[in-house]
Structures are given as structure tokens and as C-alpha cells.
Design goal:
Low-confidence stretches: none
Strand content: under 5%
Distance between the termini: 10 Å
Structural class: mainly alpha
Radius of gyration: 16 Å
Shape: elongated
Largest sheet: none
Helix content: over 70%
Oligomer: single chain
Number of strands: 0
Number of domains: 1
Order of helices and strands: HHHHH
Length: 133
């Protein structure tokens, strides 16, 4: 059941990523409240996803009978820490509408970078991690 919840959370993150990505070429001055709303949803969903990984999924894999799974879980836990730091910096920089409006090109660049890295991370999880659940 926990792994199904985790997969549902993953799909929810991908949906909001698509929504944010679709707004990257729009004029932010007209729809900034809506964009901030989607960023807040993204932040909350990502926080839930990371917590599910850390508190439920990693221990489940780590406690499996296969020694190989132990090292995979530890490796992903380290990557999760890096993701938390990366996202915290992103969120701190772009949480306010004024920050986005002041440097919209920087916001677009950082957001596209975040989306690309997160999609790569999720794809890697699908190929290496989900098979262990």
C-alpha cells in the first residue's frame, strides 16, 4: 500500500510539473498569483514525496533481505538530501512574486533546470528503485 501511495504522489508531482512548465513562456505579470499557487502545490507535493521516500520507502528497501538493496537505499537517501538542499535554495529564491517579476529570465532558467533534473531523477527511480518495491 505504501508503495502505491508513493507512486500516486509521483504522478501528482509530474502533473504539477507539466502545469508549471506550460507557464514558462507566458507573461508572468498577468498570472503571477496562479503561478505562485502552482509553485506552492509543487512544494507541498514534493515535500510529501520526499518524506514518504525517507520515512517509508527507503527503510522498506533497506530492511529487505538482499544486501544489495541496503546500499541502493543508502545511495538514494544521500541523493534525497542533495535534492532537499537544491529545492530549498530554489524555493527560497523564487517563493515571492516580486522575485519572479524582478528576474523572470532567471526564474525560467532555474525552473527549467529543476524540472529537467527532477524528471531525470524520477526516471532513474522508475528504472532502478521501483522494481525493489
Amino acid at each position: 500500500m505504501d508503495s502505491e501511495l508513493y507512486k500516486i504522489q509521483r504522478e501528482a508531482i509530474l502533473e504539477v510539473l507539466d502545469e508549471i512548465e506550460s507557464r514558462m513562456n507566458l507573461d508572468f505579470s498577468e498570472g503571477i498569483e496562479d503561478l505562485i499557487h502552482h509553485l506552492a502545490i509543487f512544494s507541498a507535493r514534493l515535500f510529501l514525496y520526499f518524506n514518504t521516500e525517507e520515512k517509508i520507502i527507503y527503510p522498506k528497501i533497506k530492511n529487505s533481505e538482499k544486501n544489495r538493496n541496503h546500499s541502493i537505499a543508502d545511495d538514494y537517501r544521500q541523493k534525497l538530501l542533495s535534492w532537499r538542499i537544491f529545492f530549498k535554495v530554489y524555493h527560497f529564491r523564487w517563493a515571492l512574486p516580486s522575485s519572479i517579476l524582478k528576474d523572470h529570465e532567471g526564474f525560467r532558467e532555474d525552473t527549467r533546470n529543476l524540472i529537467q533534473k527532477l524528471r531525470q531523477h524520477i526516471l532513474k527511480e522508475e528504472n532502478e528503485f521501483y522494481i525493489l518495491l
